[in-house]
User: What shape does this take?
Amino acid sequence: MSTCAIPEGSLFDMTVQMFNRAADCLHLDEGYRKIMTTCQRELVVNFPVVMDDGRIEVFTGYRVQHNTSRGPAKGGIRFHPHVSLDDVRALAMLMTFKCAVVKIPYGGAKGGVTCHPASLSRRELERLTRRYASEISILLGPEEDIPAPDVGTNARVMAWLMDTYSMHRGYTVPGVVTGKPLEVGGSAGREEATGRGVFVTILEACRVKGIDIKNARAAVQGTGNVGGTVARLLQQEGCRVVALSKSDGGVYNPHGLDVNDVLTYVQQNRTLQGYPQGEAISNCDLLELDCNILVPAAIENQLLAGNAPRIKAQIVAEGANGPTTPEADAILTDRGILVIPDILCNAGGVTVSYFEWVQSRDAYFWTEREVNARLKRIMTDSFQEVLHTAQKYNVSMRQAAYILAIERVRAAYELRGIYP
Ligand code: GLU
Assistant: This one.
């Protein structure tokens, strides 16, 4: 997915800017600022993969642990052509604060491989995953660093990761990754957890804004695991989903789309081009549609200083990580738009990852109902906590979420002390 204009800086610089706004409110000590704006460990790996035609290709991958003061490092693995060390650092930092916002006992990490997964065969993808898993395994472990799916990876990739790690150990270690298939120790409800969490926060935000979801209109960028789930849940609740998109463009119907039909079309055609029940719309135009709820649920750098003045939605729910730049964030906030920040909005995924990890440790599994009920409680409570903090400090929801997270990370340092 391309960006709709030039972003204002690198993703890491922008994430640090968001952090600094909240740190200023807290008058955070310079030492803690240094700690929290630096990544603790960074691993870059260059590794060969034999392609199906016999050629050898060398890929570059990363695993970055931003901070482990609150627990083992946790975060997804991204397979995407634009993956860079800078992005992975930013995404790792977001994970530290995300886990702190929802109070789950993890630090933050992220990984990725610069590649085009759609152009790899299944066997090539498996070889790439296994070799990458092997290269970064020096950092991994159920008590050390626990990957999960992210853009371009899924449960099957997690199964290969878990298997590779387990083969090196000589026994099965289900707790080393989350987002696994159910058959090999995954959790009920994990697949749709991120989208479901986004949906819960949208319902809370509608209450704040006095929007009746049954009469609301939503535009969703993304038809993947997150966007697809949010769109389905919104429609089930009576909301009209007027637009949906994939990386190569979207579809718009002011009367509302049949979400399941759109998702089936995407599954069959891997594109939305040619979808008959609506008109084609670009990803940039989708963002500016007349709707109540806008859900950027694809990739970073979508809401920028250039298009923020034209956003018509009253609620922006950040299903993606980093979809809004700091300048755009300030514009949206000034315009009274309620932005549910990524580190709160999409925290449902890592929350159910945590449930999966707990279930793996106990070798005792919960029902989907139980998982969803616990997820809903955590997301609702976290939203309310962030909202109260926003009111207390008279700041945006993003700043409030960072304030809570920073205080929790700082508390961990104060209690543990700085070694030696
Ligand atoms: N990749 C997801 C995220 O950005 C999930 C991470 C996890 O479950 O560890 O939050």
Notes: The mean pLDDT is 97. Residues 119 and 125 are 9 Å apart (CA to CA).
